[in-house]
Amino acid sequence: MQSADQYPAELTDAQRRHFSEHGYVRLRGVLTTDEIAMLRQAMARAQSSFELSPNSYNVTVAADSVWNHEAVDDRGPVKHDLAALAAAIRAYDLPRLADPPADGGTRGNFLLDTGVWRRVPELAKFALGEKIAGFSAQLLNVPAIRYYDDQMFIKEAGAVDRAAFHQDLPYFHLDGNCGCVFWIPLNSVRAGGGRVGYIPGSHRWHKMFKANVFISELPFPGAEGETMPQIEANPEAYGVQYLEAEPGDVLVHHFLTVHGSEGNRSNTLRAAFSLRYCDAELRYRHRPGAPAQPQHKTGLKDGDPLDDDIHPIVWPKTRRTGKGASNFEIAA
Ligand SMILES: O=C(O)CCC(=O)C(=O)O
After folding, report:
1. What is the pLDDT of residues 84-96, one digit of tens each?
2. Which of 135, 195, 216, 230 has the smallest number of CB atoms closer than 10 Å to its CB?
3. Spans of all domains in the chain
4. Are 185 and 270 contacting, i.e. CB atoms less than 8 angstroms apart?
């Protein structure tokens, strides 16, 4: 088997074709043991400073409050207005999406944080480095790549909350769809342990769906786009593909690919970083209803270039000027 140390910077035609046709691809064993160790260090640092983040959430605790009709802890002005979200969720009476807990298992938390690279130098070094940026350029087939942002998704043992099916673009303030997300697990992810599931070809549906509140199919108030079909009710009809993964593997999906995740019914942690890259030419476009991004630049108008410090150009290492929106060339 090929060692990740010798993993070619060049992706294979089959990998690029899979991404183009299906909207996702699993890159097996692409991270070295040193990279995995470094990312685990980054994860530990991110967790130990979780409370300091302007947009970290204990999703399980927040969801418990909402669905138990308790007051929600709305800490700090930059976080989501959880009280308003709670009111909307209760008004629509939509179920919380969760898998049944395993018999005798502990109950864990689903922890989410955004923009982790801004306070965790190990993650910044990796995310802004050439390896993943180079893969992005090949998958998106564009000459220059910008780092958009990241999220950290931790599902502790017994964190049975699911992530409702969604596309990522409706959460991003961008004027084109040419981007991809690298989902990097730091432990083995098996059936029932929090796998991500993708709908093959959904990036070619030519649809944008409303961003949802993540653990329920309720769209964010004011979100634009179509209503997401009820995929959870009938995953077979959509051909959902849940992927297992090992440390060293990286799953990549397109900004428009519909995906969601299982709860973690296992007795081990499931921790992943999700790194987002886009065509360097993309510009700002305000996305009504998308969650606030307290670490992004404020006051931008539609069509403004993105801020190079907040969304650095990572491929190649030279600066370019933006020429406007671009869309991924989708195979017919
Ligand atoms: O890690 C998860 O459970 C969800 C991941 C996800 O939805 C994403 O990376 O966009």
Report:
1. 667 777 777 778 8
2. 230
3. 9-71+81-315
4. yes
